[in-house]
Amino acid sequence: xxxxxxxxxxxxxxxxxxxxxxxxxxxxxxxxxxxxxxxxxxxxxxxxxxxxxxxxxxxxxxxxxxxxxxxxxxxxxxxxxxxxxxxxxxxxxxxxxxxxxxxxxxxxxxxxxxxxxxxxxxxxxxxxxxxxxxxxxxxxxxxxxxxxxxxxxxxxxxxxxxxxxxxxxxxxxxx
Length: 175
Prior knowledge:
The protein is α+β, with helices and mostly antiparallel strands. About 15% of the residues lie in helices and about 15% in strands. It contains two helices and eight strands. The chain starts with a helix and ends in a 28-residue tail after the last strand.
Protein backbone atom coordinates (compact mmCIF):
# COMPACT_ATOMS: atom_id res chain seq x y z
CA UNK A 1 0.00 0.00 0.00
CA UNK A 2 1.48 3.31 -1.08
CA UNK A 3 0.79 6.45 1.04
CA UNK A 4 1.22 9.81 -0.56
CA UNK A 5 2.59 12.84 1.29
CA UNK A 6 -0.71 14.74 0.82
CA UNK A 7 -2.71 11.92 2.40
CA UNK A 8 -0.32 11.82 5.37
CA UNK A 9 -0.68 15.60 5.90
CA UNK A 10 -4.48 15.24 5.93
CA UNK A 11 -4.25 12.52 8.61
CA UNK A 12 -1.90 14.62 10.78
CA UNK A 13 -4.13 17.72 10.47
CA UNK A 14 -7.26 15.74 11.32
CA UNK A 15 -5.53 14.23 14.38
CA UNK A 16 -4.40 17.69 15.53
CA UNK A 17 -7.94 19.06 15.23
CA UNK A 18 -9.33 16.11 17.21
CA UNK A 19 -6.80 16.70 20.00
CA UNK A 20 -7.61 20.42 20.09
CA UNK A 21 -11.33 19.64 20.31
CA UNK A 22 -10.68 17.38 23.32
CA UNK A 23 -8.49 19.93 25.14
CA UNK A 24 -9.89 21.02 28.49
CA UNK A 25 -10.08 24.61 29.66
CA UNK A 26 -7.35 23.88 32.25
CA UNK A 27 -5.10 22.38 29.54
CA UNK A 28 -5.70 25.43 27.34
CA UNK A 29 -4.65 27.86 30.09
CA UNK A 30 -1.58 25.87 31.16
CA UNK A 31 -0.44 25.30 27.56
CA UNK A 32 -0.77 29.05 26.81
CA UNK A 33 1.29 29.79 29.92
CA UNK A 34 4.01 27.26 29.10
CA UNK A 35 4.27 28.35 25.45
CA UNK A 36 4.15 32.12 26.00
CA UNK A 37 5.06 32.52 29.70
CA UNK A 38 1.88 34.62 29.96
CA UNK A 39 -1.30 33.40 31.58
CA UNK A 40 -4.18 34.89 29.48
CA UNK A 41 -5.55 37.32 32.12
CA UNK A 42 -9.01 37.74 30.58
CA UNK A 43 -9.90 34.05 30.98
CA UNK A 44 -7.21 32.44 33.14
CA UNK A 45 -5.42 33.23 36.40
CA UNK A 46 -2.10 32.39 38.01
CA UNK A 47 -2.38 30.44 41.25
CA UNK A 48 -0.04 28.54 43.54
CA UNK A 49 0.42 24.92 42.48
CA UNK A 50 0.41 23.95 46.15
CA UNK A 51 -2.67 25.33 47.91
CA UNK A 52 -0.66 25.55 51.17
CA UNK A 53 2.12 27.76 49.77
CA UNK A 54 1.63 31.52 49.85
CA UNK A 55 4.89 33.28 49.01
CA UNK A 56 7.24 32.37 46.16
CA UNK A 57 5.14 29.37 45.20
CA UNK A 58 5.35 27.54 41.86
CA UNK A 59 2.69 29.09 39.64
CA UNK A 60 0.15 27.33 37.44
CA UNK A 61 -2.21 28.99 35.00
CA UNK A 62 -5.79 27.89 35.72
CA UNK A 63 -9.10 28.82 34.10
CA UNK A 64 -11.36 31.36 35.75
CA UNK A 65 -14.92 30.29 36.50
CA UNK A 66 -16.97 31.11 33.39
CA UNK A 67 -19.21 33.41 35.47
CA UNK A 68 -16.12 35.47 36.41
CA UNK A 69 -15.22 36.10 32.75
CA UNK A 70 -16.68 39.10 30.92
CA UNK A 71 -19.15 38.37 28.13
CA UNK A 72 -16.76 39.98 25.61
CA UNK A 73 -14.00 37.52 26.55
CA UNK A 74 -16.20 34.44 27.04
CA UNK A 75 -14.21 31.51 25.53
CA UNK A 76 -16.77 29.79 23.27
CA UNK A 77 -14.96 26.43 23.39
CA UNK A 78 -15.40 26.16 27.16
CA UNK A 79 -18.22 28.56 28.14
CA UNK A 80 -21.15 30.34 26.47
CA UNK A 81 -23.00 33.61 26.81
CA UNK A 82 -26.47 33.82 28.28
CA UNK A 83 -28.93 36.62 29.03
CA UNK A 84 -29.46 36.74 32.79
CA UNK A 85 -32.52 37.89 34.75
CA UNK A 86 -31.38 41.52 34.67
CA UNK A 87 -31.16 41.29 30.84
CA UNK A 88 -27.36 41.46 30.99
CA UNK A 89 -25.31 39.14 28.78
CA UNK A 90 -22.98 37.06 30.94
CA UNK A 91 -20.56 34.18 30.52
CA UNK A 92 -21.68 30.81 31.91
CA UNK A 93 -20.30 27.27 32.00
CA UNK A 94 -21.26 25.00 29.13
CA UNK A 95 -23.81 22.31 29.76
CA UNK A 96 -22.37 19.08 31.07
CA UNK A 97 -24.66 17.22 28.70
CA UNK A 98 -23.20 15.87 25.49
CA UNK A 99 -26.42 16.52 23.61
CA UNK A 100 -28.70 19.53 23.58
CA UNK A 101 -32.20 18.43 24.62
CA UNK A 102 -35.25 18.91 22.36
CA UNK A 103 -36.76 21.20 24.98
CA UNK A 104 -35.95 22.48 28.46
CA UNK A 105 -37.31 20.29 31.26
CA UNK A 106 -38.19 21.43 34.79
CA UNK A 107 -35.35 23.53 36.21
CA UNK A 108 -33.60 23.91 32.82
CA UNK A 109 -31.46 27.05 33.02
CA UNK A 110 -29.69 27.11 29.65
CA UNK A 111 -30.85 28.99 26.59
CA UNK A 112 -30.08 26.59 23.76
CA UNK A 113 -33.74 25.55 23.52
CA UNK A 114 -37.19 26.71 24.64
CA UNK A 115 -38.92 25.18 27.65
CA UNK A 116 -40.90 21.98 27.12
CA UNK A 117 -44.70 22.30 26.71
CA UNK A 118 -46.36 23.27 29.98
CA UNK A 119 -43.25 25.09 31.24
CA UNK A 120 -42.23 28.76 31.01
CA UNK A 121 -38.95 30.60 31.67
CA UNK A 122 -39.12 32.80 34.75
CA UNK A 123 -36.83 34.64 37.13
CA UNK A 124 -37.18 35.45 40.80
CA UNK A 125 -36.89 33.90 44.23
CA UNK A 126 -38.27 34.83 47.60
CA UNK A 127 -36.66 35.55 50.93
CA UNK A 128 -38.06 34.23 54.21
CA UNK A 129 -39.46 37.70 54.97
CA UNK A 130 -41.53 37.56 51.76
CA UNK A 131 -39.43 40.01 49.73
CA UNK A 132 -38.59 39.15 46.14
CA UNK A 133 -35.27 39.15 44.33
CA UNK A 134 -36.27 39.20 40.68
CA UNK A 135 -32.78 39.50 39.19
CA UNK A 136 -30.88 37.09 41.41
CA UNK A 137 -27.73 39.20 41.35
CA UNK A 138 -24.78 37.48 43.02
CA UNK A 139 -26.74 34.24 43.42
CA UNK A 140 -27.25 31.01 41.51
CA UNK A 141 -30.76 32.26 40.69
CA UNK A 142 -29.53 34.86 38.21
CA UNK A 143 -30.73 33.07 35.05
CA UNK A 144 -34.29 32.21 33.95
CA UNK A 145 -35.38 28.61 34.58
CA UNK A 146 -38.18 26.50 33.17
CA UNK A 147 -41.07 26.09 35.63
CA UNK A 148 -44.68 24.83 35.34
CA UNK A 149 -46.17 28.23 36.13
CA UNK A 150 -49.82 28.69 35.23
CA UNK A 151 -51.08 25.20 36.05
CA UNK A 152 -52.72 26.26 39.31
CA UNK A 153 -50.30 24.30 41.53
CA UNK A 154 -47.28 25.79 43.35
CA UNK A 155 -44.54 23.18 42.84
CA UNK A 156 -40.75 22.86 42.94
CA UNK A 157 -38.87 25.92 41.69
CA UNK A 158 -42.03 28.07 41.93
CA UNK A 159 -42.66 30.80 44.49
CA UNK A 160 -44.79 33.92 44.83
CA UNK A 161 -42.09 35.97 43.08
CA UNK A 162 -41.57 33.95 39.89
CA UNK A 163 -45.11 32.53 39.70
CA UNK A 164 -47.71 34.61 41.55
CA UNK A 165 -50.41 32.87 39.46
CA UNK A 166 -49.81 29.58 41.29
CA UNK A 167 -48.16 30.59 44.58
CA UNK A 168 -49.45 32.68 47.48
CA UNK A 169 -47.08 34.99 49.33
CA UNK A 170 -45.77 33.40 52.53
CA UNK A 171 -43.99 35.33 55.23
CA UNK A 172 -42.08 33.49 57.92
CA UNK A 173 -41.19 35.38 61.14
CA UNK A 174 -37.46 35.68 61.71
CA UNK A 175 -37.52 35.23 65.53
